[in-house]
Amino acid sequence: MKKLIIGTAQLVNNYGISNYDKKKTFKRITHFLEFCFQNSLNSFDVAPDYDSEKIIGKFVKNNNIKNVNISSKIPSLKFLNSKKKLDHIKKNIENSLEKLGVSKLENLYFHDENDLNFFLKNDERINEIANNYKIQNLGFSLYSKDKFNILNKNKFIKTFQVPMNIINNDFDKIKSNKKIVCRSIFLQGLLINKKLKTKNKILKNFNQSLMELANKKKINLYSLCLSYIFKHSKIQKIIVGFDDLKQLKKFLNFKKKIIEIDQDLALVRSIIDQNLHNIIKDPRKW
After folding, report:
1. Disulfide: which of 72, 102, 179, 196 matches 159 by Cβ 3.0-4.6 Å?
2. What burial letters (b/e) apply to 260-276, b meaning 16+ CB within 10 Å?
3. Domains defined for the chain, CATH in brackets
């Protein structure tokens, strides 16, 4: 799928509420990456926090791969003195490029949307830094639509990562001439995993209710999640993380169909009140 960007948060670590017992061996990761490049899946979303930059860089170097598109992130700046933040951005970019073994990044996102005010006060200088390091697009990874509306007017911001799934429709009707990349389409597996082992009672109870509803009404949650995303024509790219190669192959084998999803979507959303919705849609509250 040309829209697919491989998320790497769980490539090395047990990231996510449904990714709890997978062994992240170098051999297993290498096998996964080999399959990706053999099938022209050469776009990856990384971040210093994911610990994936170094292992992808090693694979790219060892296999002399030239055609690779990498998006990385600037970790939160909230604990830094204002005078040190610009230097931190430079060092972060340099470290990412060195670990990845590439000369440029396709996208560079601010990982913490609360760095918005600092960015707006220093946007020209930050854009200059990005240009010096051959960053093709500056962007933000967001949860808040209010922050999106502010940044959408900024001339230096070219791309956004936003959550979009059958639960979270905050960004359904956004209007922008920027590049829109959606993430969290399965909410870390919460929306499709039948054997969730999370200790979070709120999430566990919701997951059980959702699975019972899907079984009773014969709703294919996997197809519903993907069909919901594919109907949005404004989405340029989709970030999906995979626990293993089996999950990736299942995703690639999904047959995109024009199906009516409104009824199933309404049923799913009917089991969520507003308070529950506000918690479930935002993993930062888990």
Report:
1. 179
2. ebeebbebbeeebeeeb
3. 4-187+232-255 (3.20.20.100)
